[in-house]
Amino acid sequence: MPLDLSDESHYDRTRLRQWARGRARSAGVDRRDLLKLFAVGAAAGSLGLAGGGTAAAAPALGVGAGAAPGIVKPLPPDLFTIRGTNAETNFASLRGTGHLTPIDRFFVRNHTSTPRVDVGTWRLKVWGDGLAAGPVEFSYERLRSLRAVERTLFIECAGNGRSFYSTQQGQPVTGTAWTLGAIGVGHWRGARLSDVLRLAGVTRGAVDVLPRGLDDEVVANGVNLGRVRRPLPVAKALDDVLLAYEMNGRPLPPDHGGPVRLVVPDWVGISSIKWVGDIEVSGEALYSPWNTDMYRLFGPNHPAQGSAPLTRQTLKSAFELELGATVPVHRTRLLTGRSWSAAAPVTRVEVSTDGGGHWRRARLHDSPRRGGWVRWSVPWTPRTAGATAVLARASDGTGRTQPETAVHNTQGYLFDAVVRHPVTVV
Ligand SMILES: Nc1nc2c(c(=O)[nH]1)N[C@H]1C(S)=C(S)[C@@H](COP(=O)(O)O)O[C@H]1N2
Ligand SMILES: [Mo]
């Protein structure tokens, strides 16, 4: 009986086993190089590549505050915090904005830098032994002539919230030290990946689909990992994945993958390959560093070989307030924020303004919907001056509530614990 790979965890476990036994094919990285990487990783505790090319504590070399890290759009300091080649959305700047994250404040996560891709000469090449015949190319015009779908979905980095492993749980992690702003909700318009794959002649024998970006090759620890790419099981690829060419009603901007990117609902941000140039459709299992050494859970809480590759994002909440904000005593203000989950709509949000002693239900301003977030608010009148913390805790339709502590992993992925947001009352 053929394996059912439409089940995500089954898929991942199967690929992982196959990969560990050398039975999945490397998509472009020499096995020797991968082993070399693993050796470096073992010595260093991990690669330091997790969701970013920079170590948590060390600022990226040559990139000072406000310096242009290869991102095209303006990055004013009130809207963004620059972290290496990436720009984190300042959550406070979302206050008063709508359900969608405006493009001028949508986070950017670049392994290298934003390439300028010409729409006129751009082609999407679909190829591989999982197709009935030879490669098929799609121009931008052809892609736009296919039946279009529109969806509102968040894209969130697997490492969003990573810095709280160290600041809140005292546990070291590697990777970009995001607070909670490595997420944005966009309204995407595009073609269905499934339509494109069918037009290209995908066969029943196809197993994995590997989209690859047109940005520069990634070099880490002296090893060229090649272009950013991460295999998707064909079941997910044929299910709900978009090839998006519009974001919030505008042509997809360069920093967010223009002219065309993948949008993979619910899955970690790395799945949503930007500037997609080609897609391999394979009859064999594929692996790349982005589903073997990176984007898996390593450390004492996880299997010795690491967890299965990450698929779905988790559950989080954030205040639309600076960390360490100063607020006046005896004055009533509206605390606002957002909560989101990849598993099911967020159904309840509770807020504590006394460091976690008492909890109140927040008022929800969006009807709970899969793929988006809910905005919420709760009034607060601080009664005593001094340092305190405000906390927000969400529950989703699966019955899950954010825990007090997130399960540590060396690369700091999937932080889901309630964040103690420091505030000073004066
Ligand atoms: N080609 C390419 N695709 C990519 C990346 C990249 O560096 N290159 N970064 C990935 C990661 S880690 C994330 S979190 C999302 C970020 O999307 P955004 O920059 O539009 O917010 O894009 C993903 N797609
Ligand atoms: Mo990411």
TrEMBL record:
<dbReference type="InterPro" id="IPR008335">
    <property type="entry name" value="Mopterin_OxRdtase_euk"/>
</dbReference>
<dbReference type="Pfam" id="PF00174">
    <property type="entry name" value="Oxidored_molyb"/>
</dbReference>
<dbReference type="InterPro" id="IPR005066">
    <property type="entry name" value="MoCF_OxRdtse_dimer"/>
</dbReference>
<feature type="domain" description="Oxidoreductase molybdopterin-binding">
    <location>
        <begin position="111"/>
        <end position="290"/>
    </location>
</feature>
<dbReference type="Pfam" id="PF03404">
    <property type="entry name" value="Mo-co_dimer"/>
</dbReference>
<protein>
    <submittedName>
        <fullName>Sulfite oxidase</fullName>
    </submittedName>
</protein>
<dbReference type="InterPro" id="IPR000572">
    <property type="entry name" value="OxRdtase_Mopterin-bd_dom"/>
</dbReference>
<keyword id="KW-0560">Oxidoreductase</keyword>
<keyword id="KW-0479">Metal-binding</keyword>
<dbReference type="InterPro" id="IPR006311">
    <property type="entry name" value="TAT_signal"/>
</dbReference>
<dbReference type="InterPro" id="IPR036374">
    <property type="entry name" value="OxRdtase_Mopterin-bd_sf"/>
</dbReference>
<dbReference type="InterPro" id="IPR014756">
    <property type="entry name" value="Ig_E-set"/>
</dbReference>
<keyword id="KW-0500">Molybdenum</keyword>
<feature type="domain" description="Moybdenum cofactor oxidoreductase dimerisation">
    <location>
        <begin position="335"/>
        <end position="417"/>
    </location>
</feature>
